[in-house]
Specification:
The protein has helices spanning 32-46, 48-67, 74-96, 106-109, 112-139, 159-164, 167-188, 190-197, 201-214, 216-233, 241-260, and strands spanning 20-21, 261-262. Helix content is 68%, strand content 2%. The protein is globular, with a radius of gyration of 19 Å.
């Protein structure tokens, strides 16, 4: 299969000619995980009102999709489309200083088919993990009581389930979690690669997975710091999340540029 990773001009104003797209992604130091959040905060401070509105709209849409029975699978399909719009907004703000809440829907206007394909491929990965886990629990008689909720990506494993599970079940759970983690990594940068560089969905997910593996340490630092900040922001009444959610989205854009765009 031809994994064409050739770059094309981003939909927003083009970057400086001194910048160069690196389809393979580069390895960055661990401390960059903190810098991504700092840079996201700096960009947020330039247009806080718009970013709060965009982040709130993003959360509400995902919550509505997740709340509707059977339609919650649309979260997997449309999530990359919304993230593609977010990356469009990030790039537009970065290059022009301007951003609108409506930029969140840019993914529905441009590259929508490719972005939905990312979600579809993610569903295939999720289904693969679910089949592995169901086979493992079926062979062992399902003593952990794991339900078919894994088909929607909502499997949860308690300490009791893990402690009393058979070897086959534990192997199945480990394989499921590995596939689930690979799906997250393959999705992390894929919408930005599709939206801003017109990379094909399969190639974008492959490049995203490789970049996450290559940069597991800064991503680990980023995840820990972000998790702490999100917990603090949720006190009291979760009002701080109105600030932290857009900062998180912007930090994803900054991490993409740091790894895939020479600067």
């Amino acid at each position: 299969m031809n994994d064409n990773l050739s770059a094309s001009p981003p939909p927003s104003p083009p970057a400086s000619p001194l910048e160069a797209f690196d389809p393979r992604g580069r390895r960055v130091p661990a401390q960059h995980g903190v810098e991504w959040i700092r840079n996201g905060w700096r960009m947020f401070r330039q247009r806080p009102g718009v970013w709060v509105g965009l982040g709130l709209t993003y959360l509400v849409l995902l919550a509505l999709l997740s709340a509707v029975p059977l339609l919650n699978l649309l979260t997997l399909l449309l999530g990359p489309v919304l993230m593609g719009g977010t990356m469009f907004a990030y790039e537009r703000a970065r290059t022009t200083g301007d951003v609108q809440i409506g930029d969140l829907f840019a993914g529905f206007r441009q590259h929508s088919g490719q972005l939905v394909m990312i979600g579809l491929l993610t569903m295939v990965l999720t289904a693969l993990g679910a089949v592995v886990l169901l086979l493992a629990t079926g062979i062992s008689g399902g003593t952990t009581g794991i339900s078919a909720e894994i088909l929607t990506g909502r499997a949860a494993f308690t300490a009791g389930q893990l402690a009393h599970g058979s070897l086959a079940e534990l192997i199945g759970i480990a394989m499921y979690l590995l596939i689930f983690a690979a799906g997250i990594a393959a999705n992390w940068f894929a919408p930005a690669l599709v939206m801003l560089h017109n990379v094909t969905p399969y190639a974008a997910m492959k490049a995203s997975l490789a970049a996450c593996v290559k940069n597991w340490l800064p991503l680990l630092v980023y995840s820990i710091v972000l998790a702490v900040l999100l917990m603090i922001a949720s006190i009291p009444f979760g009002l701080g999340l109105l600030l932290m959610i857009p900062v998180m989205l912007l930090s994803i854009g900054d991490s993409y540029r740091d790894i895939f765009v020479a600067r």
